UniProtKB/TrEMBL annotation:
<feature type="domain" description="VanZ-like">
    <location>
        <begin position="21"/>
        <end position="105"/>
    </location>
</feature>
<dbReference type="InterPro" id="IPR006976">
    <property type="entry name" value="VanZ-like"/>
</dbReference>
<protein>
    <submittedName>
        <fullName>Putative integral membrane protein</fullName>
    </submittedName>
</protein>
<dbReference type="Pfam" id="PF04892">
    <property type="entry name" value="VanZ"/>
</dbReference>
Length: 128
């Protein structure tokens, strides 16, 4: 989660004239949706099996977490050269988080994959 947040912060800290995005329409909004969709999944991953006890609440928390991080990101961008605050970017951030959270919510197989991945990582760091 911290790595994704750091990557978003790093990218938003680039001045607008140095950031290279694909040229098709909406590429920046797709990038926002993707980044915040991944961030929402990492928030859900953070909950682990505790997240499966109340999945609707945890999906809502993930979306709200991403919304508030998106607000802080837009505020941060207001201090960067050639960047500006955009409500449309914030909407794309929230839409990405909402889409990922909904896919996670209605897909028990994805929930189990995320949980088993987390358990696999944790077992590597625990002593025998």
């Amino acid at each position: 989660m911290v790595i994704i947040m750091g990557t978003i912060f790093f990218l938003s800290h680039q001045s607008g004239d140095t950031l290279q995005l694909p040229t098709f329409p909406g590429a920046d909004k797709l990038a926002h949706m993707t980044a915040y969709g991944v961030l929402a999944l990492t928030v859900l991953w953070f909950y682990g099996d505790k997240g499966l006890k109340n999945p609707v609440r945890n999906a809502l928390v993930a979306v709200l977490f991403c919304l508030f991080y998106g607000i802080s990101d837009e505020f941060h961008q207001s201090f960067i050269a050639f960047r500006d605050v955009s409500i449309y970017d914030l909407l794309a951030d929230t839409a990405g988080a909402l889409c990922s959270s909904l896919v996670w919510l209605v897909n028990p197989a994805l929930q189990q994959k995320i949980l088993s991945f987390q358990n696999g990582l944790l077992s590597r760091f625990q002593s025998p």
